[in-house]
Amino acid sequence: MQVNIDRGGCISCGLCEATCPAVFRIAEDGLAEVHHQPSDSAEESGAQEAADGCPVSVIHTEG
Question: Side-chain half-sphere of 13: how many Cα atoms within 13 Å?
Answer without folding.
Answer: 15
